[in-house]
Amino acid sequence: xxxxxxxxxxxxxxxxxxxxxxxxYADAQAQQGDTEISIAPQPEASADPVxxxxxxxxxxxxxxxxxxxxxxxxxxxxxPQASSLRELVAEVDAPATLSRQLxxxxxxxxxxARGEPIEGQLAxxxxxxxxxESSAFPSDYCGVVTQRSQFSFVKNxxxxxxxxxxxxxxxxxxxARIAHEGMWNSAADDSLYFHATYVxxxxxxxxxxxxxxxxxxxxx
Length: 220
Prior knowledge:
mainly alpha; 7 helices
């Protein structure tokens, strides 16, 4: 085939391709040797926009507030705001039911300090909590309270269950909750020991006094 013939043939093919630009291949078939190749129908172009109905997941922005902060915020929101311990005791609810540990803590407040001002009652509860957190004492409230020769109201390792003063028992439950949840700082601070002002135990000389509240002196 001459160069002119080749050029003419190429021009013919190109013209054919341009002319068939709008052709849809719905039924087109091609033959290659003895093997028949089917070309799948192609969708015609549409002028309307096509929307993809698939869920698009976008990463959420990281929050600056940690889980611990969220928990603290919830706790703060649930804690009554008070300007004094007396006001807090008036506002906080006494637990309707007590765990065994909180009952031991409230029992110690009731039997050891119900005649003391509420600051003194809170201080007694704080000493028990401090002891439970110290390796030198039992690791829970009941163990601390019932430890031998520590609290005079405990008999044979048992805390009395008879509480004749309902108002004092309700207040003791409130104080136990306040101390356990850390709602109010006690003047006893980190004290681990206390005794009545009318006695002078020999061990007191080796301790550091933290506070004196009515008839009790508290030591570290």
